[in-house]
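User: Hi! I'm working on a homework problem where we have to compare a predicted structure to a textbook description. Could you give me the structure for the chain below?
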Amino acid sequence: MGYNVKIQKVERGTTKSYYINFPAALAEAAGIKKGEEMEWELEDKNTFILTRVKKSPPRKSPKT
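Assistant: Happy to help. Predicted C-alpha cells:
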C-alpha cells in the first residue's frame, strides 16, 4: 500500500523551497521522532531515497 502526497513550492523573494508532508502512519510505523534528521538521495528521476542520518536499530520481530 502506498501513500499519495503532493509537493508544495514556497517562493520568498529570491529563495524557494519545496515541502513534502510525510504521512503520520508511515512516521509512526518507522518510529520517526520530531526533529530527527533525515537525508534525501536521488537514485533516478523517479526514485528518491530517504534515510536517517543517525541509524536506528532494526525493529525486533516478536518470537513465536
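For your comparison, note the following. The two ends are 26 Å apart (CA to CA). Strands lie at 7-12, 15-20, 38-44, 47-52. Good luck with the assignment!
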